[in-house]
Amino acid sequence: RNYPGLAGFFASGLLSASLSTVSSWLNAIGGMLYKDIMEVYFPNVQYSDSTEFNIIRAVVIILGIASVLPIFIVEKMGTLFQLGRSVFGTIMGSAMALFSLGMFFPRVNTKGAVTGAITSFFLSAWIVINAQYY
Question: Same domain for 88 and 26?
């Protein structure tokens, strides 16, 4: 049988469930980042409740935007397998460079290793993203 409106009812239920999950995730991550960063690195600074609320709100907005931006990259990537390979190569290439640096250059300090790993990650990501566009 064909029930009018059933497909819309199902779609609205599905979208509201996913929206609820995403909003809970964003609020939890925003509060957790505030607790873990602000209270650990700035323990002597006392903020009012409204300032804390505004900081958490800004974190949630930034995370929301950062969650949506990869859509524009993913649509250019093609298949899910290719996307997985590209992400895996970007992350593991940086990790392999970090381990190789530690094995072959024992005088490297933490600051240099972290800087090299971050630089390697962003350079690899830049190469992968540009390879998809051109």
Answer: no
